[in-house]
Amino acid sequence: MATVHHWTGLEAHALRLALRMSVRAFAEHLGVAARTVAKWDKLLTTTEPRPDTQAILDTALARADAAVHLRFETHLSETGRPGQGAGRRVTASGSRTWEYESWADDLDRVVVALSRQSFAFADNLLNRWLERFGPAELDDKGLYLFARSTALLGDLHRDQGAVLGTLSAQHSYTGARALFTQLDIPRRIAQLDLSLAVVTEMSGRLVLAARHYESLAVDDRLSRRDRARARLWVGTALSKEGNHDYASRVMMAAIRDFEDLAEPDDWSVAHQKLALAHRGAGDLTQALHFIDIARRTGSTDSPMQRVRLDTAHGHILLSDPATRNDGLQVLDRAAKVAAQYGMSHQLGSIEGIRTTSEGADRPRRR
Q1: What are the Cα distances from residue 33, in Å, to 4, 25, 27, 61, 190?
Q2: Are 236 and 244 contacting, i.e. CB atoms less than 8 angstroms apart?
Q3: Cys-Cys with 231: which of 10, 198, 217, 324 at CB 3.0–4.6 Å?
Q4: pLDDT at residue 348 above 60?
Q5: Do the Cβ atoms of 186 and 226 come closer than 8 Å?
Q6: Helices (H), the chain
Q7: Which residues, other chains included, contact 27 with Cβ-Cβ below 8 Å and sequence gap of 6+?
Q8: Are 14 and 76 in contact (CB under 8 A)?
Q9: Can you say whether the dihedral through the CA atoms of 83, 88, 89, 91 is positive or negative?
């Protein structure tokens, strides 16, 4: 999601267009005078909203949905890269303009498809554009859409469990990062750094991943939410490495951040990861306490969310002989959904939990 560190009339104008509001409607939405909005539209980068209005614009952008964010970023990309001149707009001529509109609309659809783990549909939408154009033939707006498509392709590979290799999350994220570097968009570059840190963790390099997360947790290029997520993932990587006590403290700090930001889904996921850290430390009472919070408050709208929550719950239940059978049933349910939707990384994690549990239960030979 987009974050604006300092608003000018240009960003305010782009937000109005992204929200598809008239001058008067946008003014009412923000609680400012219509002449103020008209001034932003006219003067663009040569005027700046007052400090209190900056905060109002921050809130309006934060509350906007993903489609608005995408349109907002697309409108800004049309102005050209920083330093190219305040009045310059990079636009396509002729039919290419309509192609870009369709491309942007398809990216909205990809985000929805990925949230539902509709991988085949998302792959089809992305590749219809990535195979149609090459980066060298695109202007800045087209290159921005190409970079966003490549980043989303990385998300698709990551969710399918293809972490390393030619057709992998790492390959796509690296390519998208190079394009955003060419476009000079620091926030997008930092987001790709965060995605690459996730790849590092998924590939088993936990200490290195934790170091990357720690640096990104204080990186001003990222939004507060992304920084809080990076802090949470520091704890995740350290917990997997066996440093459960420190990981729990880091996760609690992330939970407080999510509470301050009013991000209920992230708050719930953080409790799920905190429960696993307590399981790793051998405190099953606390582990059950926190996983119950996650189960009561967590969103289960997508198959991925259901699998992750059931995997964590099953792992904790499996740790106690008294609830072992219940844990196996929960893991079986998670494995069935993971296999159905092609989530190979999640399926591998479930099998790993089962194998470890069977090894722990097997009698030792004397």
Answers
A1: 22, 10, 6, 18, 36
A2: no
A3: 217
A4: yes
A5: no
A6: 9-19, 23-30, 34-43, 51-63, 66-77, 96-115, 119-130, 140-160, 169-183, 186-202, 206-216, 224-241, 244-261, 264-280, 284-297, 303-318, 324-340, 344-361
A7: 33, 34, 36, 37
A8: yes
A9: negative
Kindly indicate the confidence band of residue 267, based on its pLDDT and cuts at 50, 70 and 90: very high
Return the SS3 of 90: coil
- pLDDT of the residue at 92: 35
The pTM (predicted TM-score) of the whole model is 0.68
Q: Would you tell me how many other CB atoms lie within 10 Å of the CB of residue 230?
A: 24
DSSP H or E segment with residue 86: none
Mean pLDDT for the stretch of residues 312-328: 92
pLDDT band at 361 (very low <50, low <70, confident <90, very high): low
Burial group, residue 252, by CB count within 10 angstroms (0-12, 13-18, 19+):
middle
For the CA atoms of 109, 338, 207, 272, what is the dihedral angle to 10 degrees? 90
State how far the Cα of 60 lies from the Cα of 27, in Å rounded to an integer: 12
Distance separating alpha carbons of residues 100 and 107, to the nearest angstrom: 11
Q: The tokens of 250 are what?
A: 């880091």
Q: What is the pLDDT of residue 85?
A: 41
Q: Identify the sign of the CA torsion 257, 263, 269, 271.
A: positive
Please give the DSSP secondary-structure letter assigned to residue 365. Answer: P
pLDDT of residue 97: 67
Structure tokens at 151: 């980043």
As given in the structure block, the two tokens for residue 47 are 């005027």
